[in-house]
Amino acid sequence: MSKPKHFVGLDIGGSTIKSVIIDPTGKQVGGIVEVKSLVKNGFEATFGQLDIAISELCENAGITVEDIGGIGLDVPAPSSNGVIWGRANLGQDWVGTDICTKLRERTGIPVTMTNDCNAAAVGEYAIRNKHLGGLLLVAPGTGLGGGFVLPGGHLYEGANGLALEVGHISVPFREDDGSLPNCTCGLTGCMEAWVSLVALRRRLRIELGKPEWEFHDLNSAAGTIEEKAFQLRTLAENGDALAISLFKQQGHILGYGIADLVRVFDPGLIVLGGGLAEAKFRDQFLDWVKEGFNDRAWSVYRHSPIEPEKSTTDFEWAEGGDAAASIGMAYTARELFA
Fold first, then answer.
1. For residue 162, is pLDDT > 90?
2. In which region does residue 130 sit, left (phi positive, over 0), alpha (psi from -120 to 50) or beta (all else)?
3. What is the DSSP string of 68-134?
4. Res 11 pLDDT > 80
5. Which domains are present in the chain?
6. What single string gives the DSSP state of each residue in 181-220?
7. pLDDT one-digit tens code per residue, 65-99
8. Is the pLDDT score of 1 beyond 80?
9. Is 67 buried (19+), middle (13-18) or exposed (0-12) by CB count in 10 A?
């Protein structure tokens, strides 16, 4: 009788790879192993880093590579059936490459792959082991990503692995001059153009040019607008009016857009990820999200018409932190290859 296998989750980012290993019962063994990703140097360079991470994971778990039954991999780029469709933060040779097949040939271990937001959504689902319904992850960061897990823990990726680009749904908010903001995707009026670090930089530049903020400390501070935007979270935590107004706008628009996503998917649970999950003012931010949601959502998506005291859409902050995506991929590998 064969020995029960362990499963590895590898979260490949622009600068680091975060990895975990789980035992046959689904329990994580040891902590996160983190190594440089070297993604700009090509996928073969990154594979070398994966070898290092897997070796350390096995050492921590007291097993050999032969005891690994599957690898789950996520990348910060669109992909389908193991093939990268777009470069994003990766080196050029990743595009069009069947990463799953190449890594399987290198390691002799079955491999599955998805994008980073999908992986984080599965990780948040796995962490909530008593939650049996759907889960929609919305994660503001440099951009605005999302992932949707169906009841029972099955990830929804779409026909081409391109579903849940939540940052690029249209929202009816305009700049002061009536124009729609440009999005990094090339379109205008996307939710990501309002809710992201990129959007925060644009809005900060606009606000600092207004008379009411002429004497704000950021106007006289040295540094680029990017450097100043990185200070906004700390300023908001200390009650700064400008920073709070910017995050309040982002929270309201995010909630407004989530209402349309809920109208389509009716997930029951919304999980908010990204850096704000660790912010000291996150409860206030969540209130702003809910206000935006209530402005747009039908009443049935807020409370049950049969049981009025029962909420039909709940909001929670992400719990997995930096490990969410790698945990999600380890669980995905176990689901597929156990």
1. no
2. alpha
3. EEEEEEEESS-EETTEE---TTS-GGGBT-BHHHHHHHHHSS-EEEEEHHHHHHHHHHHH-TT--S-
4. yes
5. 6-116+322-337 (3.30.420.40), 135-318 (3.30.420.40)
6. PB-TTS-BSBGGGTSSHHHHHHHHHHHHTSGGGTT-HHHH
7. 999 999 999 998 888 888 988 877 788 999 999 99
8. no
9. middle
